[in-house]
Amino acid sequence: MLFNDLFAKKTEMVTAANALPGRSEAIPTAERHRVNDHPLKGPYPETSQIAMFAMGCFWGVERLFWRMPGVWVTAVGYAGGHTPNPTYEETVTGKTGHAEACRVVYDPETVSYRDLLKVFWEEHDPTQGMRQGNDVGTTYRSAIFVYDAEQRREAEETRDAYQAALRAAGRSDRITTEILDAPEFYFAEDYHQQYLERNPGGYCGLKGTGVDCPAA
C-alpha cells in the first residue's frame, strides 16, 4: 500500500501551492554546445525559430534533434511547472511540476516545424501519460510547447493524424501529449547538456519506432 501511494504521488501533478519554492537566480549551466560550439542561450540567427518538446528522458531526445540538418543549437532543461529555476534533484521528486524538455533552435528554410514534429511523434510513445517506458513520473510526460498559433495548428493536426494511424493499426491507446503555450524554459545543469556526446553509451530511454536508442 505504501508503494502504491508513493507511485501515485509521483504521477500526480503538483499544485502551485504545494510546489517547491525554487530560487530567484538561474542555476549554472554550459555556455556553448559541445557538438557545434554555438551559444546555448544565444544570440541566435535572426531567421531562426524555436521549438520545445518533452518526450521522456531528455538525454536521448536532445541527441535526436541536434543531429538533424537545419537545427542550429539544442539545450535541455525544465518546463511546464511552478518552481522557478529548479534543479534536477528537485524536478525528479515531482514537486516542481516541470517536465524534462528539449529546446530546439532551427533554420525553417532547412528543416520545417513539421519535420521536427515527425521526429517527436515517431521517436517516443505519446500514449503513456505520466511516464515514458521505465521512467515514471510527471517529469517524463509527453508535451509540445508551442510558440505561436501556427505551431499549435501543426501540432494539433499531426497529433490527430497520429491518433488516426494508431486506430487504423488496431490500437486503442489514447494520445496523452499536452499541447500548451510555451512556458519559461529553465536550462538544466551543465552535466546534462549534450550528455550523450560525452557519454555515447549512456542511458537514452527512447521507445519510438522500435529502436531504443539510435547508435552513436
Number of domains: 1
Mean pLDDT rating: 92
The sequence of SSEs as H and E is: HEHEHEHEEEHEEH
Beta-strand portion reads 15-25%
CATH topology: Peptide Methionine Sulfoxide Reductase, Chain A
Distance between the ends? 42 Å
Uncertain segments: 1-7
Question: What is the tally of beta strands?
Answer: 8
Detail the topology: elements first, then pairings.
Layout: H1 2-10, E1 49-55, H2 58-66, E2 71-79, H3 88-91, E3 99-106, H4 113-122, E4 131-132, E5 135-136, E6 142-146, H5 149-168, E7 178-181, E8 186-187, H6 195-198
Parallel strand pairs: 6-7
Antiparallel strand pairs: 1-3, 1-6, 2-3, 2-8, 4-5
Protein architecture, described:
This is Peptide methionine sulfoxide reductase MsrA. Has an important function as a repair enzyme for proteins that have been inactivated by oxidation. Catalyzes the reversible oxidation-reduction of methionine sulfoxide in proteins to methionine. This protein is an alpha+beta fold. It has a single domain, classed as 2-Layer Sandwich (Peptide Methionine Sulfoxide Reductase, Chain A), CATH 3.30.1060.10. It is 26% helix and 18% strand. Strands 7-6-1-3-2-8 form a 6-stranded mixed beta sheet, with helices on one face. Strands 4-5 form a two-stranded antiparallel sheet. Helix 4 (113-122) packs parallel to helix 5 (149-168). The radius of gyration is 17 Å and the shape is globular. 39% of the residues are buried.
Kindly summarize this structure in a few lines.
The protein is α+β, with helices and mostly antiparallel strands. It has 6 helices and 8 strands.
